Amino acid sequence: MAEKKKVHVKIGDRVVVTSGKDKGKTGNVKSVITKDGTVLVEGVNLVTKAQKANPMYGIQGGLNKIEKPIESSKVMLTCPACEKATRIAHEVRDGKKVRVCKKCNKTIDE
Q1: What is the pLDDT along the chain (110 residues), one digit of tens a residue?
Q2: Same-domain pairing of 5 and 55
Q3: Four-point Cα dihedral 65, 69, 74, 80, nearest 10
Q4: What is the largest CA-CA distance in the chain?
C-alpha cells in the first residue's frame, strides 16, 4: 500500500514557487496529491501537450498548454496577513489546531 506524504499546503492557499523554472511565480493551489507529495498550482509548470481532437468530449485538437503538478517542497505558503512567503507552525488555539505564520504570528486558517 502506498504511503501518504505530509503536505504543508491546502487547496485554495496562495503559494510562491521557491525553485525550478517557475521560481518566483505565485498562484493558488488547485489540488493536493498526498500519494506523491505534489501540488497543482494555477499558472505554474505549464507544459505543451499535443492532443487529438475529440468532439464527443469537446476537446479541441492541437498544441494545448496544461498544468502539471510540482513537488510540494518547491512551494512556500504566502501569509494572507503580512503578504510574505513564510514557513508555518501548528498550534492549538481556542481548542482547535491551526496553522500560524512564523513571521507575523497570526493564524492562517480562519
Answers
A1: 578 888 889 999 999 999 999 999 999 999 999 999 999 999 999 999 999 999 999 888 899 899 999 999 999 999 999 999 999 999 998 899 999 999 999 999 76
A2: yes
A3: 90
A4: 54
What secondary structure letter does DSSP report for 29? E
**CATH number for the domain that contains residue 40:** 2.30.30.30
The sign of the dihedral angle between the CA atoms of 57, 63, 66, 71 is positive
| Separation CA 67–CA 70 (nearest Å) | 9
70 and 85 share one domain: no
Domain that holds residue 105: 81-110
